[in-house]
Predict the 3D structure of the following.
Amino acid sequence: MRERCEYCGGTIICYRGEYVCEKCGDVKGPVFVTPITEGSISDTQISAPEAIGGIIERGKYETNIEERRRIYDFRLRISDFYGDYKVIKEIIMVSEKLNLSTNVRDRAIYIYRKISKENIKSTKPVLAIASIIASARENRTYVQPKKVCEIFKQLGHKVSMNIVLRRVNEICSKMKIKAKKPSLEEYVKDIIRLLRINFSEDANERYFVNLEKEALRIAAQLPKFMIIGRNPRTLASAIVYAAYRRTRKQGSIKVTQEKLAEIAHVGKFTLREHYSMIKRKIGIIH
């Protein structure tokens, strides 16, 4: 029975010295060729030039020495790149776990492949984490560095938060990445992204789409004087909570102010004050 890909269910095949998925092309690992051959010693003496590239006879099976040597050379050439394949695969997996957009994921892969060629003394997992954080900053997406490090630690890597943050600064400096200030709408979308991660098993995607539409509708109703001078992340959290109060009968999740404050990394008392202000402005939240 053939092995199946854990991501798409495709058949695993051998292609150019590697096991890859026939459907999605995911690289699973190298094909190791045994260096041991069976043969017999002949009494007939031949010259060395004739022996190189010749045929070793072993019963009714024959193996070409040059073909085997070519496989060994290919294995040595790609051995250095196999670690990058594995790390890129982990970047994709972590991005999906954090519910990051494809733009953030693809940009993180590009940053990693580019920065890994630079003279930065660091391990591949640390560079991968730093690439994800730098990509998120560039795309104005909030990612908690501690959370990313914890996921990589669960994968068996030893990483240090301080080293990761130093590498993030180096990457941003080398690639001239400037953290753009997100808009209030982008903060709202980011808070809902975090809710998706925490309540992915309790509600379907359609509810989160409706929640996001309602939250953006509430944000558009707020006058500028209520937005200017306030912490945009806390205000966005209050907007999302107000939208939840309006749409809670449509879904099966239960979100409290304390839980939302923990998910969004904001103060629960400040969140409560902002929600009360929004409630007075736009009316009763059902």
Observations:
- Confidence is low (pLDDT under 50) at residues 55-62.
